[in-house]
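Bit of a strange request maybe. I'm writing a small parser for structure token strings and I need a real example to test against, not something I typed by hand. Could someone generate the tokens for this chain?
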Amino acid sequence: MQWAERIGLEEQPDERFNWTLIGDVLKQMEALLLDTQTLKKKYRLDLVAVDALAPETSAAPPRTSFGKLLSRLRPDFPTASSRIVDESNGTIKKLRWAVFDRGKAAILISDIVHFNNSLHGLLDNVNQDFVKSALGSVLRDIISRSNATSELEVIKQLLSSSRVAAPVAVASAASLKQIRLILGLGPDGVDCTERQAQRAPPEGIKIKLIQLKPHLLQRESLQLSPGGRELALYKSKRVIIEWKFIDRDHEKELKTRVDQLAILLAHTYDESFHSLHCIGFLPKDVSYQPGDGESICYGLVFELLTSPSLPLSISPVIRPLSTLFVNARRPSLNERRDIALALAETILQLHTSGWLHKGIRSDNVLFIDLGDSKWEYGKANGPFLAGY
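Reply from user aminoacidic:
Good idea to test on real output. This should exercise your parser:
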């Protein structure tokens, strides 16, 4: 619809475009999508009859995730009058496509993407960017609503070859949503027992909880920065440890959440998340001890990407956002804008994947000084959102 609006298909056609070529492409797409015999023979799709007045559950379930995605495109008719209108529109309105060959379905996706890209290429740069953004918004909405890992895998296949704004970021959000579904997590982070069937990872998704070895850890100080963080060395590499304090009375339940959090943060490596990469967790026997006797700790360990030439004697400095406004050099207007945009992108990624942070505040927005990359020089690394 956005493409049709931009090209003037619904109103006065724009004479700048080659309408002969546009007509040819649209006719080929029409033949591809409406030729029942071609869809059956070439792409191994089949039609499943659905009674327009019957409940949705009466339809035979599609056999593949692509079929499920297709079936969801059928509009809902909530009122009796709208269902009657739908029934009078012909038999084709009461049919759903089911996919019986995943390989053939992939070819169909590729062919559809080819024609869409051909039409997209006819727009000027400004309108191309607009359509890319609109399509990205649609796919993000689908990802946020999806409750099937296989369906999300199909969306990632579409992203790999289609013209969408920030396709890598959208695909990364889809991957994180897959991990959350496999772990059975809802938007509030609580385990959802009804999603247990989703716990079989699709191909290409590897989930592994990494428990780090305490004897390889070299702690520099027991003094924690705001947020319960400290700098350390693990296997002679710079890391940040973020300690999670757990009430002893709820250790079993909360330890499971820490495990899930470590797995999720290991999959936020795309730069669009603006988060440090978690390499694993430390068991409680090496944790920082608060001394109150009522709490125990587990440590999430994040790697710092430092230059190989940077000597270990030069220690990084963690700068929360809250300290920048009392620093000798306050953030400029452009820097404040960039920080806001980075955080907005992070929130967009998290919400697309169904994850609510619940702790976004200045103490959890970090900048890191490494060697010559210092905030005072305008070269600090960050921002990174922490405190998950």
